Amino acid sequence: MPALPWTAPHPAPPNAPVVVMASRFEVRTLGDVPGFLRKSLAAWRQVKRAPGAYGASLVAQPFRRTFHTLSAWRDLDALHAYARTEPHRGIMRDLRPAMRASTFTFWEATAEDLPVAWDEARRRLDEQAAADAAGGP
Fold first, then answer.
1. Before 115, cis peptide (omega within 30)?
2. To pair with 32 at 20 to 30 A between CA atoms, which of 95, 98, 109, 128?
3. Are 36 and 49 in contact (CB under 8 A)?
């Protein structure tokens, strides 16, 4: 399973609150995988420069057509600013036709919780996917 390990471009101050986001993306076909992976790497490079980014990781499961991200941010404003900035904004637009399913989950943690364990992120993603399927929050 190809992975980009946790990278902390801007370490969080001690005891600081952080916002964590985990996501799971599934593309429609195996033919969509190379483009998604290429664009994911561009977004990865952007995260490393993004103000308020405390850390990020990416796991790709290309033969399952699935990609997972995990990131920690100073606050939701920093995360939203990253998402609205190029190249991420254009990547979201360009990849929309290739997407089969997406799940996002957010939670609060502290700097001492970083890096977040992938087991925790996957558990929260599974819970969110079940809530989304049931029509919940």
1. yes
2. 128
3. no
Distances in whole angstroms, Cα of residue 74 to Cα of each of 52, 55, 69, 78 = 5, 10, 17, 6
How many Cβ atoms sit within 10 Å of the Cβ of residue 16? Answer: 15
52-62 pLDDT, tens digit each: 999 999 999 99
Angle in degrees, CA 7, 10, 15, rounded to 5? 105
Q: According to the model, what pLDDT value does residue 44 have?
A: 87
23-49: per-residue pLDDT in tens?
999 999 999 999 999 998 899 899 999
Q: Say how many CA atoms lie within 13 Å of 12 toward its Cβ.
A: 26
Exposure string of 76-108, with b = 16+ CB inside 10 Å and e = fewer, is: eebbeebeeeeebeebeeebeebeeeebebeee
Report which of 122, 108, 124 is spatially closest to residue 12, judged by C-alpha positions. 108
